[in-house]
Structure formats: structure tokens, C-alpha cells
Amino acid sequence: FLMERKTHVKVNRKEVMLAKLRKSCSCTPQKLKTFFMDFFPVLRWLPKYKCKEYIWGDVMSGLVIGIILVPQAIAYSLLAGLKPIYSLYTSFFANIIYFLMGTSRHVSVGIFSLISLLVGQVVDRELLLAGFDLNDDAPAASGDGPLQNDNLSNTTAFNLTIVGINAQCGKECYAIGIATALTFMAGVYQVLMGIFRLGFVSMYLSESVLDGFATGASLTILTAQVKYLIGIKIPRSQGHGMLVITWINIFRNISQANLCDVITSTICIVVLVTAKELGDRYKHKLKFPLPTELVVIVVATLVSHYGKLNEVYASSVSGAIPTGFIPPKVPEFNLMLRVALDALPLAIVSFVFTVSLSEMFAKKYAYTIRANQEMFAVGFCNIIPSFFHSFATSAALAKTLVKTSTGCQTQISGVISAMVVLLVLLFLAPLFYSLQKCVLACIIIVSLRGALRKFRDVPARYHVNKVDTLVWVVTMSASALISTEIGLLVGIVFSMLCIIVRTQRPRTALLGQIQDTTFYEDDLEYENLSTVPKVKIFRFEAPLYYANRNYFLKSLYRLTNLDPNVEAARRKKYEKKEKQHLKKGNHRTANGLGIRETTLQLVPKQIDFQALVVDCSSISFLDTTGVNTLKEILKDYKNLNISVLLACCNPSVIDSLKRGGYFGKDFGCMQEMLFYSIHNAVLFAKDQK
Description:
The protein has 689 residues and is an alpha/beta fold. It has 2 domains: 54-134 and 168-231 and 241-429 and 436-501, no CATH class; 508-570 and 606-688, STAS domain (Transcription Regulator spoIIAA). The chain has 27 helices and 11 strands. Strands 5, 6, 7, 8, 9, 10 and 11 form a 7-stranded mixed β-sheet that branches. Helix 4 runs antiparallel to helix 15 and helix 20 (466-481) packs antiparallel against helix 21 (484-504). It is elongated and about 115 Å long.
């Protein structure tokens, strides 16, 4: 039987689009109010804020995150290749803007190691191309502002037009100029993606790709910090193969290691790792995480200051961190053009991490977020701070977990964290002058524990899915051994290729009947299945399209042990020879057999079926090539008096077959060619003569 299809009213897409355009372009007071309420979600939830219920958790989580943010911001400035003051600016502005525009109650948006690494690689490349010395210990610029000239080791300077005035720009100024231009472009990309609703691009970053990218980038981050750990001075490697080149330089210069830095690093890593492990073990007993990083930084700064480690042992220190805010400045347009391409992967990675974390915690705490608004929020967290000497931001998993564990209820906690950072910016920043860089490197390396632990999960990941494990390994290797940006691109392309390959060579099977039932399954996978006499049931577990057409035919011919084209050609050959011998009056055929014997041989023994049932339950769609392929096997098997029956087709496949003329012009034979279950097709085949 054939089920009657519903008649769908055709929608005039042009009229629908015009109606939506008219609606979106209309401006009424109510619509304007709704727009502002949607664009600034804080206007919706802040008036409903339950102060007595939420305030304690928000204040506590905000203070804890603020205390964690300060040492992390100073440490991650090493990754970004910028002064610590710019990291503090970034942490301050990101929290304020996300408070106004974000829809997640829990995520912590701010400085993030992977984003800092991406920014740092672009900054280092541009500094190198501009002729600056990448040595971190180059003499500092004379003066407080970022537009002062670097002296001696950085004599290269560039004329930049700033507010219509030509001013010479030194290394620090040029570095933050590159970072702000990169950040501005990343934010613009994110806002444009939000306007055009391009959030679907995040779907191409699978969990395996993201994990592999994070792990590979973590190896790069760890490698970049080793020189600070042991206090050697080596050039900062750039370009492809940075990880390998850096390790070669490290081993070449290992004899120059600073004993003071080595001892300090060993003590700090032992303390930090021990505190983290104890915190993880007893986290259910602790009301809030131990501020280990802050304690280590305070103690290390005091020891370095009073022990004069910089003067006596030549230990590298952070140097002067100015207080207050530098006047805002528009990012340079010329620099934007230089980094426009680099900003694209930065924008995508920043957005994907933020939205994925927002969705994860929204699901956990039973509320909803708006992904498109999250894209706007993270975009403006990059655009606006770029005018205030800040660089790119993203949500960070570790800090978000800390926020939730310390009682965070809303983004009020983000404002509290920003106030802590502001306190450091205005008053406490100069106190970190004597802080050793090796201590900051230790904080960065210990923060990578989570990403590096992914190596322990490889056997379990391999057991679950071998292809996903291969994607993880390829992405991780490319990110670490080539570069982070290329690694991300390689991971995306490779994962898509894996999907294509899996649809090009999917599982195929001949089905047998489960005894005493109307169900059918793979004859090679299950025991005690009975074959159906005179009927072959073929399953193809993928869409049928141009890329897997040949594999479909080869699998069908191999499993049924019959290639209709070869059989038809063989029969024509025998018929031709038979006619030639009959014309000559020879009743013996070319192979020495009689006419009756030859006729019997024309019907080969291997054709042991009269009907072929194609199980289409796993065929999600057909393209033109797929329809033509089914029409081809229908014709070829018909020439051998074998009927082809289709079973379990979805409506999309049926429509494609109708449009392709598979059932004829008037669909008159459709009832004899299409069945809604395999069993119905088998029963029909058995009833045929």
C-alpha cells in the first residue's frame, strides 16, 4: 500500500523575506525598547536581582576570581609578548562589558592562555618583520607612555600617524598597536558573524578538533616558557616548527642556565602542583579554592626584592608596571590590514570557546543562553577594549569552574572581579616590580595541567572511537609541530575528510531474517539468521551521491555475487556465436555443446535470486547521480529478469526518485517498486512468478 502524502502549501520566499525586512526596518517605541533589552541583557535580569539570595555568592566568587585574575594576567603577558599592564586592562574591561552584554550567568570572560598565545605569535612576527629585537630583557623605554622610543637595543622606530600627528613609535608601542589592531579585527569579525547569523561555523570545530588544538597549543605554550624556567636567553622562534627549533636552542644553551631561576622554578612548581592536587582532592570540603598563585607571587616578590635576586644573580624580573590608565587610542588602520587574516582564526576560536562554555553551564544550571547574543558580547569584549590598549579575550574553563564552585549566581561576580583588578591597576601594580619571570612561567605551566592530561585519555578515546582519536592526534601534532593557526585549519579539514571518507566507503551488508519475526539484520554480524529463498536484501549505510556511487555498485555486485553488466555481455557473446553457427547449419555450438546445452549454460548457476530488495533506511538523501544509479541497476537487473524493490525510503528520497523519473511518468508502477518495510517487499517478491 502507499500512504497518502500531505499537500504542503508553497511558500513565496520573496514575500516572506520582504515581510521580515519590513518588520525589521520598522521602528516603534516598543520595538526600540525590546532591541535595547535584548542587546543589553543586564537590563532584564538586574531589576529582578535577588539581593539577599545571590549577593554573598556573587561577592565571594568575584573576589576569588579577582585574586586569581591578577597573577594570571601578569603571567599571560609573557605569552602575548606584551607588558603586564595591558593584561590587567584586558581583564578589567572584558568583565565589565560581558556583565552588560552576556547572557550566561556563570562564564568568566577575560584573559585566556590559548588566545594570548595566538596574539603573541602575531605580535612577535610583526615585531620581527619591523626589525625590532625580540629579546625580552632589552632595555626599557625611557618615559612612562607607550609612545616613547626604545633605546640602544631597539633603535628601530616607525613613523605612525596618531591623531594627525607624526610620532615615532618604539617596540612596546608597536607591539600593543599590533595587538589592539588584531583584537579590533577579531571583534569586528565576531559582530559580523552575529549580524549575519554565522554561528553555524562553530559546528565544524568538533570536540576532537578543539581538544587536539588545545593540547597542541599547550605544548607550544609550555615550550615557550621553558627558557624563563631555567633563566636562559635564547631568541624567540617564529614561523613553522617553532616547538622543535625552541627545544634545539634550549639544549644548545642549557649550560647557561641561571641557578637562581632553576631553584625558584622548582620550588614554585612543587608548591603549585601540590596545592592544586590537594585542592582537587579536598574540594568538597573547601568553601573556596586556595589562592595559591597569589600567595606564591607575593612570597616570591618579597624574596626577590629583599634578596636582590636581579642584582646579585641576574634573575630576570617583571620590571616597572605603571599605575592608572593610558589615554585611549584608535587602533591603526594600516596595522589592521596587516593582521586581518590572522584575526579570523582568533575570532572563531574565541567565539567557540565562549559559546560552548556558556551552553555547557546553562544546561547544567537549567537556563538558556542566546548564542547570537554571546557572539555580540564577545565581539564587543574585543572591539571596545581595543581602544584602551587591551588584547583579545575569551571565556576560560578553569576560572568558570572556580566561579561556580564558589557560589556564583550572576555576572555581578564579574563586576567584583573587575574591581579587584582596578584596585591593582590604580595602587598595587608597582609592587610587582621585583617579581621573577620564572615564577610567572611556573604559573602558566601549572595552569596547563588540564590540557596536558588529555594524553592520559588517549587509550579511552581510542577505545570509544578510533577516527576521533586520529583527528585528535593529527590536530594536536599539527598545532604543536607546525603552528597553532595551521593546526586548527588542518584539524578542521582532516575531520571533514574523515566524514567524507566514511560516507564514501560506508558499511554494506546482505540481510537475513530473524527467525519467527518480520525483522532483518546483517547476516555477518548476527547468528541464527535465515536467508530468504530467491531474494537478496542489500543495505547501504550512507547517503547515495556522486562520491560513493562506484562503491555502492561494487559492494552490491560483490555481495550478491552477480554483476549484471558482465552477465549481460556474456549472454550477448554466446547469442552472437550461436547465431553464427546456426547460419552455417552447424547444430554444434562453438564450445562443442548442443543447442539445448548452450541454452542451459546461458542461465548461470550463481543467479540464485529473482528479486533484489534495497534497504534504504540509512540513505538520508540522493543526488542526481544517486537517482541515476538506482535507475541503472533497475534497468540492468530487469534485463536479467530480476526485480529491484526499494524499502524504507524516507520522504526526501521518495521525492528525489519521483523527480528523477524512477517510477515512470505517471508513477503507475510505484506500488510494485516501493515498500514501507523490508518484510512487505520480501512478501511481494515471494508472490512474484
